[in-house]
Amino acid sequence: MVSGMGSVFGLSELIMKKVSDVENGRIKTEAYRSAVVLSNGNIDNQGYLIRHIELREYIENFDPKRGRYCLVTVLVQTDNEIIEMKYDEGYIDDLGFELLVTSLTKYTGLSALINRALLELKSQRYLM
Asked: Is the pTM of this model over 0.90?
């Protein structure tokens, strides 16, 4: 479920409008690793078609005692837009990232995440 570095969308990510709540300049490299939660989806929610959901982990710092300080984002692709939002941050080890993925895919995590992303997209439309 977890993959290594690299962009998942390639060219399509460059063409679509991208919205983000991550501070400008904070993401400086490719994701250290990612986990695709939904691919080739066709979930209709509030007038949006959810196509792809992915967690991405970016290493921002390394402490010899505490390990990697990471920013974890979630990327949601709809039929027209992409939104990348902060999901978690802190000192995260390999197991910690796996637990984030598991918690997102179980319980009500995925539906809450989709609703949060769609609210963010709608609020961005009013700002433009």
From this structure: no
Take residue 75 and report the two structure tokens written for it: 């990327």
- Tell me how many domains the chain contains: 1
Would the CA dihedral through 109, 112, 115, 116 be positive or negative? negative
Among the ranges given (63-77, 88-102, 112-126), the one the predictor scored with the smallest mean pLDDT: 112-126
Provide the residue range defining the domain that includes 79: 2-127
Burial class (CB in 10 A: 0-12, 13-18, 19+), 23: exposed
Distance CA 55, CA 29 (A): 15
Which two three-digit tokens encode residue 43? 């979930």
Rounded Cα–Cα distance for residues 100 and 55 (Å): 9
